[in-house]
Amino acid sequence: MAIRKLLVANRGEIAVRIIRAAKSLGIATVQVHSEADTEMLAVRLADEAICIGPAAAAKSYLSIPAIMKAAQDTGADAVHPGYGFLSENPRFARAVADAGLIFVGPDAATIERMGDKVAARIAAEAAGVPVVPGSKGRVEDEATAMEAALTVGFPVLIKAAAGGGGKGIRIAHDADELARLAPQARAEAEAAFGDGGLYIEKVIVNPRHIEVQVLGDGKNAVHCYERECSLQRRRQKVWEEAGAFGLSDATRASLCDSAVALAKAVGYSGAGTVEYLYDDASGDYYFIEMNTRIQVEHPVTEMVTGIDLVAEMLKIAGGAPLSLRQDQIAVTGHAIEVRINAEDPLRQFMPFPGKLTSLQVPQGEGIRFDHFLYEGYQIPPFYDSLLGKLIVHAPTRAAAIDKMAEALSTLELGGLKTTIPLHRALAASPDLRAGQVHTLWLEPWLAAGNLTAPA
Amino acid sequence: MPDILSPLPGTFYHAPDPKAEAFKKPGDAVAAEDTIGLVEVMKTFIEVKAEVEGTFDGYVAGNAEPVQAGDTLAKVR
Q1: Which of A35, A43, A109, A137 is deepest in the core (most CB within 10 A)?
Q2: Domains present along chain A, CATH in parentheses
Q3: How far apart, in whole angstroms, are the C-alpha atoms of residue B16 and residue B24?
Q4: How far apart are CA A380 and CA A94, in angstroms?
C-alpha cells in the first residue's frame, strides 16, 4: 500500500529533505514541530504542520505519545523518523506499527538487533563480515589473554568483559606490556564490576572510517557503494566523501558485497549504513556497526549514483520492491559534503545560535546545498548546530576538492558564526588532498593551529 | 547588586545533572568564580559563573526552562 500522507517526525534540514522527496512522489506531508520551531522552513513547506510540545526535545521530538497523537489527529498513514531523535528507537517503530501505520525504516526487531553491539557483531560474523579480531569471548586468566593477543597481533586493547564506558580499558603494545597490564585490568574489573573477566581486541592503528550504503526491501538488498567519513571531531563527522580514496577495486568490491551480505542476512528493509574501520596499512576492513536509518551524509552517495535515497525509502516502505538491480547502480565521479554548523571554529567550536541576516548560496552544476535556512531566520538554541550541508560533485577527487573550495568561497551566512572557515582551511590542506588522513587526524591538526595560522 | 544574566540563549539548569542538588540555595555564599548553573545551547553545556560576590538570593529562571541571552537567571545580594 503506497504511502498517501507522511508525518515527518524530525526537524531541521532532514525534515526539509524528506518533504521534498515526499512531494516528488505525490505524497502529502505533515510536519511536527516544537513550540520553538514554529518558524522553521519545513513547517512552511509541508502541507500541514502540528505542534507536539515545548522546546525541550524530551517533551516534543523524543515524545512517542506526542508524535503518535499528532499522526492520529492528522490522519497520517506513515511516519519518517529522519536521523537522530527517535530514528533508531525500536519502541517508536513498534508504536507506529501497532497503530496500523507505516514506519519508514526497518521493523522494530531489526532496529533492536542491530542496535545491540553484541547481537550486531554476531549477525555480522554469521554473514561472513569481518569484525575486529579479538579473543573468543571472555578470557579468565593471563595465559589465555596472551594466547589471544598473539593470535590477533599486537597492539591489543584489554577490556573488562563486564565493562562499559571505557572503564578498565588498556592498550598493550607487546607481550611484556600485556603481562604487566592484564593483572591490573583484572583487578580493576573485579573492583568495578565484581567480575574480573577480560576481553582482548586488536587495535587498528589510525583507522579510517568507511561505510557502505545499502537498500533492502526485506527480501533483496543492494549497495550504493561506499563513503569515506574519516574527518571527525569528537566522533562527529565533519567532511565526507563518496567514494573512499585509494581503495583497490578488489577491496571496494568485497567491502560493498559484505554489507549486502549482512543486509540480506537480517532481511533488511529500507536504507541502512554498514560502518567499518579500515586499516590503511593492511587494506583490511572490520565491521563496527549498522545504522538503521538515513544518514546525514547520504547526499554524497546520491550525487555519485544519481539515486534519490529518501524517495527509495518511501517507495520501499510503501511496499514496493527494490527499483534497482545491483548491475544498474554505478558511480560517476567523486562527491564531497561538508557540514555547516552554527559554531565558531576559532573559539573552540562554541555554539552560535544567532539570526541569519543574509544568505548567499553558490549555484551551478554539481553543487547542492541541503539546509533549512532563510533570511531573517532565528536559529533556535535547543537542538543540534547543523545548519546545512554543502555538497559538490566533480569528475575526480582533485576536481571535487577544487570545486568545494570554490563553492565555499561564495557561501555566506550573514550574522552567524559557522564552520565555513574550517572547511576552507581543510580544502586547502595538502594532507587531505593526498588522502593522508584518518579518524585521529583532525583534532591534532586543529590543535596544531592550522585553522588560526595566517594564510 | 547586579543580577546574574544568561550569556547565551538556551535551556537553563540549576544543577549539574538531574539527580544532583542545585549549585546554590538561598543564603549560600557566592564567590565570583562560582558556577551557579548551566545553559545548554545546541547540546553543549556552558557553565554560568556568578561574576559577583555576595549571598545567593534564589533562582529567577526556572530549572530546565528556556532562557534568552540577557535574561536574569538568579539574584545575589
Answers
A1: A43
A2: 5-104 (3.40.50.20), 142-202 (3.30.1490.20), 208-447 (3.30.470.20)
A3: 11
A4: 30
Digit-coded pLDDT (tens) for A266-283: 999 999 999 999 999 999
Task: Say whether A293 is catalytic.
Answer: yes
Show the cell assigned to A46.
Answer: 509541508
Say what percent of chain A tops pLDDT 90: 88
A382 touches chain B (CB under 8 A): yes
Q: Which residue has the cell 565521479?
A: A333
Mean pLDDT per segment of 10 residues, for chain B of length 77 residues?
Answer: 89 94 96 96 94 95 94 95
A443 part of contact set with chain B, CB < 8 Å? no
Q: Examine residue A345 and say whether the peptide bond preceding it is cis (omega within 30 degrees of 0).
A: no
List the catalytic residue out of A293, A339, A368, A397: A293
Average the pLDDT over each of A125-129, A189-193, A209-213, A380-384 and give the range with the smallest value: A189-193
Q: Which residues pair with A79 in a beta bridge?
A: A7, A103
- Please tell me whether the overall predicted TM-score, pTM, comes out greater than 0.90 for this model: yes
Estimate the crossing angle of helix A309-317 against helix A12-24, to 10 degrees: 70
Side chain identity, residue A301? T
CB-based contacts of A420: which residues, under 8 Å, 6+ apart? A340, A408, A411, A412, A413
**What is the amino acid identity at position A307?**
I
CA distance A4 to A39: 25
Instruction: State the pLDDT at residue A455.
Output: 44
CATH number at B4-76:
2.40.50.100
Among candidate residues A250, A247, A245, A211, the one with its CA nearest the CA of residue A227 = A211
Q: Please give the Cα distance from A131 to A154 (Å, whole number).
A: 16
pLDDT at A219 over 80: yes
pLDDT of residue A235: 87
A3-47 pLDDT per residue, tens:
999 999 999 999 999 999 999 999 999 999 999 999 999 999 999
Put simply, the answer to whether B9 touches A381 (Cβ < 8 Å) is: yes
CB contact under 8 A, A350 and B44: yes
- Measured from the Cβ of residue B5, the count of other Cβ atoms closer than 10 Å reads 17
Cα(A385)–Cα(A379) distance, integer angstroms = 9
Arithmetic mean of pLDDT, A438-446: 96
C-alpha span between A29 and B46 (Å, rounded): 37
